[in-house]
Amino acid sequence: MRFEILRGPIAKGTIRTTFVLGMRLVVQAGTLLIVARMLGPQQFGAFAGVSALAVILGTLSTFGTHVVLIKSVSSDRSSRHDILAYAIPITTICGCVLLGIYLSTVLLALPETGIPMAALIAIGVTELLMQPLYGLPIAERLAMGQVARSQLMQVLPLALRLITAAAVFMLAPANPLAAYAAGYFAASLVALGFAAMITRDCWPPVRRWRLPSQRELRHTAGYAASNFTSNGPGELDKTLAAKLLPLAMAGLYSAGARVIGAATLPVVAMVLSAVPRLFREGRAQPKRTAHLLRWVFGAALAYGLVLASIMRLIAPCFDWIFGAKYHGLDTMIQWLCLAIPGITLRLAAGTVLVTLDKPWLRVGYEIAGLTVLVVAASILATTVGTVGMPLALALSEWLMAAVGIGLIVKMQRLS
């Protein structure tokens, strides 16, 4: 069994997906560096705060239908049309409602960011409508075991954003944030059109579209909540930083947190490669699943510890990479290293619970973790200053990782 895992489809899938995610890492790193230098710490802190809020709300747009699509198509490919028939309408409706909530929240709760309304609309439409719709064909590829291909599709809009950022940086318009926001929107629009072109029968005919039944809504609700809470810890902290810290300090924190988040992509590759098998075998073959889970969590912990050590050593390089305006970024990244192993374990635990058909358990402990993040950030940011944000994030991530793994161990013992 040990060598089966090391040489099997999950290991091979992890290697292929890690390679693709390596491309994604390069693209995201390039975009982060260009946008951060182009905007400066203050504007970047504001942009990171409002865009993170859009990403958080955007996780609710599909209302969990993308997870249902993965689960159903991984077992029966012919089920895609029936799922898409209600996934597309519910994504469109939820996205429009969430767009109104997003704009109202930014205007009322984050007026200090000073982001123009046109830029807010561009960011909101991108993250709340176009990206969720684009995620449906990506979910299909993942369900069919084409993990690397699904990640390549995810890289496309990110690569287009990189091109946009580079163009804005070189042209140096009077309002670079507004210009980049327009390109941000255009990148996702082009990617959505490309997905429709390369995916056979990408969308079912409009005459087949329908609203989900109550039973289907109950089924997707758990996945929707799980998707929301799983992305919350990776995004909510940037919005909190924009609210609790001076915008220049929020920019330092957001840049450091983005660097840390991008570095955990290989764990995402490993977990994604295991998802189809866990959906198929999770509860039906508990012994095989238990063995697989030991490898998943062992690898997640080992990678987290090694990554934290490496990032702590190379942290001084980031002051030079981001430029003089980001002086102090090295210290911020060193403090953020405390959260890295917790992040990798939390990512693994949350995905495993969803594949074991226990999304509400994940929602429960991640809501607790988000509550701890908000309370700890509010206290620590005012008492110990800027380092309070990375300390609050580390506390939240380790708490969620410990509770999530404890729940899985308990479930395996019962099995």
TrEMBL record:
InterPro entries associated with the record: Poly_Biosynth_Transport, Polysacc_synth
Keyword Cell membrane assigned: yes
Keywords: Cell membrane, Membrane, Transmembrane, Transmembrane helix
Entry keyword Membrane: yes
Bilayer-crossing regions: 21-40, 46-71, 83-103, 115-134, 155-172, 292-313, 333-356, 363-381, 387-409
Alphabetical list of PANTHER family matching this protein: O-ANTIGEN TRANSPORTER-RELATED (PTHR30250:SF11), PST FAMILY PREDICTED COLANIC ACID TRANSPORTER (PTHR30250)
Protein name in UniProt: Membrane protein involved in the export of O-antigen and teichoic acid
